[in-house]
Design a protein that fits this description.
The structure holds two protein chains of two kinds. Chain A contains 32 helices and 16 strands. By secondary structure, chain A is an alpha/beta fold. In chain A, the strands form six sheets. A five-stranded mixed sheet of chain A has the order 3-4-5-14-13. In chain A, strands 8-11-12 form a three-stranded parallel sheet. In chain A, strands 1-2 form a two-stranded parallel sheet. In chain A, helix 10 packs antiparallel against helix 11 and helix 24 crosses helix 27. In chain B, the strands form two sheets. In chain B, strands 5-1-2-6-7-8-9-10-11 form a nine-stranded mixed sheet. Chain B starts with a strand and ends with a strand. The chains are: A alpha/beta, B alpha/beta.
Chain lengths: 787, 262
């Protein structure tokens, strides 16, 4: 990388994560200004966004080519009091907590005391939701049975399609006007809320144009004062770019990147959607601009790389908005999950890997940044050279890119009713979540603690930790004569808690649909304009809500241990086992040893154990799949944890697989840490036994030491491993490449390893930013030292 | 037909091309001092004790070394990895011990694998009769042929047998143009001297194209004591990496395709 990029990268890495009160003050100022006025909610929201973008501080960092910051400076992170109001205690915790902290200065605290808390107390979306949710929801939530994504953040997981590369905001405004005219001519069916939504979208489009023009003015001012002639020219050129996009469609590489970046900032300023926003199929979107620029002689490869690297820095400047409480535990990271997709198939079903794909892979390797995340989509049509290039970056050990199965993703989307073109234009976002980019609102709603539900089943629905009967009375396990009776009881409990989770989701979706629309995001997603309906209200072409199952490996091993020792071998009784669990295996070491070492385990291609994984999957799937959502979509499942398996483990007692109380659960669909003893191909076989196509994403993590990637031949074998998994319809695999020794050293002397990035579960993070238990888990994960 | 197998290794990536399943058959006519799989030397099933750890606590558990498999069971284990074999251009490697000690079983297994079009490697000491060799030759896609010492006296001393039959079998394979990779362990002070290596080249004379040098590591000490055998190379240090590299370079210059560690 050149000097410019080096400096920008350093600046980004060294910037301190802090809370900026700017947005909260502007939002409060706006809502005060409309007190007593009758404004439709979408118009309120759009005008609020306009107010922020019109008034917020413009930040242009020295040397940068792509401009725009969400806060007043890199990593200065706004809050969203209309979604979730931070208390003074929250601010104190954010400022002082060891992991994922945000500095809070005195001015911020003062503003919260004087202005923000008094205005928003009791009025934030979170306050309203918590009041609306029934007591049994709260009991289950407190017991740690599920989490709730939308309590501190807005519905997200949206990915940009190719619309912005074809249309300027002025074109989109024309579409809105035309749609308004059509609706008005159909006076019988049009509703006020439709007209209000369109009006709001128009204001939102104007807001982003205004924001870009403020940058253009600022850049011109800077150019005037700039002594260095080269930089002066650059600033003038950047001013031209900001004058043009997003008002007009982009015509070159630089304009395309800057356009996306403004749109990104618009989405994450409007609200704080989960997983921010995401350019999706970046190599596909940018390739026409790259090719055209090269052919015309107006762009060089070096120029394109520099712009991409500047673009990369922008993502890294934007940590996830601060989370507190359970939500902080389930997603304990600065990463905001913008997942760049590379490769895959074109809309017409051909190999989509192009020259720019490889250039972007080079950028990923050289930048070595936490954000954005990156992944490669691998179809059977893509060449091995592409997979091997990705593996070579994975080998460098910062956890990117992860590897996805395009052919499985397309099948998943088709099954959900997407058109073949929309499916091929899709991919994965966040950690591993399947979506149709630019046409779908697919919302993750919360993690679901399958292992905890099993624990409750053992206690006839009673939660020992909170001392409450939170589940159903499904009978005493010692009276269960066979294994299938146990499975039936477990299934009843799963259905009961899935019902509670869904009941809550419907309440929350309704609240967002009516009271927290996102007219700006709606501009970008087809067919919100055509439907004159908000993204949060079901305006998108496709609408899906997911519940994410957690603890598959742990739960499979629990059920297998019970089946094996109690029902098949009949060498262990329920009373003994339950007593040992209640004692956390103190004085039951022999039993625990047998449960760990002398019991069939998931991850070894052993049907005896894997059959339970298939059953759990079917039970969970049946409890959730196909239920209609408030937005007119469908509930579906996926299997991923972010960091919730650590939180869920902390609320779950000792389990029959030999796991001690409070220890993390297994993550994604990976085996329990250390339980896979037959190597990676056996893990892959086990993980393929249930139907990935009926999910919206699964996460399989395999840890390898760098030795596994030592030669071309070794890379070829890993490539075959991936290809075989994908032939069996596996959705995703990620490789964590690092030695356990290095990790142990990092734990002892964190100061010497502050650059160490590891893949956690669907994303990468600085090792030092992880909690100690998660660090230990990553160390413990099976290392396949055999090579 | 039954065989005694002491391990089936999945995702084996050092025992021939592609991703392989390696079947370790128990029993070996040799008893090399440096043997990495001493549990494969005796042909019978053995019983010993293994140590299992759980935090601070250790447990001693009975362990059976070797298990009877019928052909069908072995084939079903192989079948589990079929897609990996196919995708990677891999297959099955028969190793040991000396697989040819269980000749009838190996012959039948090789025939089954051939009929299923699965690629086969025979990882062998080369110590068996010509007649047996001739029977397996048409069924083996690639021989991983171990050479240890060219000096017959030293061979007898360190492995317990003469190398005469081994070298004859190698000649037969070369004459018959069977694909062969030589596997040569580098044991410091025993077979890694200049003379030993010159003798190796003199014998091969570039008639075999590929050599894998396997540097000695003392990772099997625990296994020797667990099965109650005396390990004679206690304290022997591995050859420095730089001199392994020298050997690799030298043989590369001589025109061989060389890899270290298989």
């Amino acid at each position: 990388m050149n000097e410019r990029v080096k400096k920008l990268r350093e600046q980004s890495l060294n910037a301190v994560n802090k809370i900026s009160v700017e947005r909260a003050l502007l939002v409060t100022e706006f809502y005060r200004s409309i007190e007593g006025k009758e404004l439709p909610v979408p118009v309120q929201r759009a005008r609020c966004l306009y107010h922020i973008l019109d008034k917020k501080n413009i930040c242009i960092n020295p040397g940068e080519l792509i401009v725009g910051e969400r806060g007043p400076a890199p990593k200065a992170t706004p809050t969203y009091p209309e979604i979730s109001l931070h208390s003074l205690e929250d601010l104190r915790i954010l400022n002082s907590r060891q992991k994922v902290s945000f500095k809070v200065d005195k001015d911020t605290t003062d503003a919260y005391v004087k202005t923000i808390i008094p205005f928003w107390k009791g009025k934030s979306n979170r306050d309203i939701i918590m009041r609306l949710l029934p007591q049994h929801w709260h009991d289950a939530y407190d017991a740690g049975i599920f989490t709730e994504f939308q309590e501190q953040r807005a519905p997200g997981h949206s990915v940009c399609g190719n619309k912005i590369y074809r249309l300027g905001m002025l074109d989109i405004i024309e579409q809105i006007k035309a749609q308004t005219a059509i609706l008005k001519s159909e006076t019988e069916s049009v509703t006020d809320s439709q007209l209000a939504e369109l009006e709001a979208m128009k204001i939102a489009a104007e807001a982003i144009i205004r924001f870009a023009q403020r940058h253009a003015s600022c850049l011109k001012e800077l150019a005037k004062a700039e002594k260095d002639q080269d930089r002066k020219n650059e600033l003038l050129k950047m001013a031209d770019v900001c004058q043009k996009v997003p008002a007009h469609a982009p015509e070159n590489f630089h304009e395309a990147l800057q356009y996306y970046w403004f749109v990104h900032l618009g989405v994450i300023t409007e609200l704080n959607p989960w997983d921010s926003y995401n350019p999706g199929r970046l190599d596909q979107h940018l390739y026409p601009f790259y090719k055209k620029g090269l052919e015309a002689g107006s762009l060089t490869k070096e120029g394109a790389v520099e712009l991409l690297q500047c673009f990369w820095v922008k993502f890294n400047n934007h940590p996830a908005p601060p989370k507190v409480g359970v939500t902080a535990l389930e997603s304990n990271t600065y990463t905001d999950f913008a997942l760049i997709n590379l490769g895959g198939l074109t809309e017409n079903g051909r190999d989509a890997v192009n020259e720019l794909t490889y250039i972007i892979l080079d950028v990923i390797e050289e930048m070595r940044l936490l954000q954005p995340s990156s992944m490669v989509q691998v179809s059977k049509q893509n060449p091995d050279a592409f997979v091997k290039r990705a593996l070579k970056i994975i080998k460098t050990g910062f956890g990117q890119p992860s590897i996805f199965n395009t052919d499985a993703i397309i099948q998943e989307l088709l099954r959900q009713g997407k058109s073949i073109q929309d499916a091929r234009n899709g991919g994965a976002s966040g950690c591993v979540e399947t979506g149709a980019f630019g046409t779908e609102s697919y919302i993750l709603t919360g993690y679901f603690n399958l292992t905890k539900i099993f624990e409750l089943t053992l206690h006839n629905g009673f939660d020992v930790r909170t001392g409450k009967q939170v589940g159903l009375n499904t009978g005493k396990v010692k009276e269960f004569n066979d294994f299938s009776t146990l499975m039936e009881a477990f299934e009843k409990q799963v259905r009961y808690f899935a019902g509670i989770k869904i009941e809550g989701n419907l309440i929350i979706e309704k609240q967002f649909a009516h009271n927290m629309p996102v007219p700006f995001l709606s501009l970008l997603v087809d067919d919100c304009i055509g439907n004159a309906c908000d993204y949060n209200a079901g305006g998108a072409r496709y609408n899906t809500s997911y519940i994410q199952g957690v603890g598959l490996g742990t739960l499979t091993d629990c059920l297998t241990a019970v089946k094996y020792h109690i029902y098949d071998k009949k060498k262990l009784g329920w009373e003994n086992l339950c007593y040992a669990l209640s004692e956390n295996f103190v004085d039951f070491e022999d039993l625990r040893k047998d449960l760990i070492y002398n019991t069939p385990k998931y991850g070894n291609d052993d049907d005896y154990a894997d059959d339970q994984a298939v059953q759990i999957f079917e039970i969970f799937s049946k409890a959730v799949e196909g239920i209609p959502t408030y937005r007119g979509g469908t509930f579906r499942i996926n299997m991923l944890p972010t960091t919730s398996h650590v939180y869920f483990g902390s609320v779950t007692g000792a389990t029959p697989d030999g796991r001690l109380e409070g220890q993390p659960l297994s993550e994604g669909i990976s085996p329990v840490q250390g339980a896979d003893r037959q190597g990676p191909s056996a893990v892959i076989k086990s993980a393929s036994k249930f139907d990935h196509i009926r999910t919206g994403g699964t996460l399989l993590n395999q840890k390898f030491t760098p030795a596994f990637f030592s030669s071309e031949e070794a890379l070829g074998k890993l490539c075959s491993l991936v290809r075989t998994y994908f032939r069996m319809d596996g959705h995703h695999i990620q490789f964590n490449v690092v030695s356990a020794d290095t990790l142990r050293k990092a734990q002892k002397n964190p100061e010497l390893y502050s650059d160490l990035i590891v893949r956690v579960a669907g994303y990468s993070d600085y090792f030092n930013d992880l909690g100690e238990d998660l660090q230990n888990e990553i160390i413990k994960r099976t290392e396949h030292e055999s090579i | 037909m039954q065989g005694i197998v002491f391990d089936i290794k999945r995702f084996a990536v050092h025992d021939g091309p592609g991703i392989r399943t390696t079947i370790f058959l128990k029993g070996c006519p040799l008893s090399c001092w440096w043997c990495h799989n001493p549990e494969g030397i005796f042909p019978e099933i053995q019983y010993c004790t293994k140590t299992v750890r759980l935090g601070e606590k250790t447990f001693h558990e009975a362990e059976q070394v070797g298990k009877e498999y019928d052909l069908r069971q072995v084939l079903s284990e192989i079948e589990k990895e079929a897609l990996f074999h196919e995708e990677s251009g891999g297959g099955v490697t028969l190793s040991g011990g000396e697989p040819m000690m269980q000749f009838e079983f190996v012959l039948e297994l090789l025939q089954e694998l051939r009929s299923r079009e699965i690629h086969t490697c025979l990882d062998t000491s080369g110590y068996f009769t010509l007649e047996k060799l001739q029977q397996v030759m048409p069924l083996v896609n690639l021989f991983l042929f171990d050479l240890k010492l060219l000096d017959d006296q030293k061979h007898l001393n360190y492995t317990g047998v003469s190398n005469r039959r081994i070298l004859q079998n190698l000649e037969t394979l070369i004459q018959s143009r069977c694909p062969v990779i030589i596997r040569y362990p580098l044991i410091p002070g025993i077979n890694n001297g200049e003379k030993d290596l010159e003798a190796l080249h003199a014998r091969l004379d570039n008639r075999v194209k590929e050599i894998h040098f396997l540097p000695f590591h003392a990772i099997s000490v625990g296994k020797w004591s667990r099965i109650g055998l005396e390990y004679k190379l206690k304290g022997l240090k591995p050859q420095p990496e730089s001199s392994v590299t020298d050997i690799r370079d030298k043989f590369t210059q001589l025109g061989y395709k060389v890899s270290i560690g298989g």
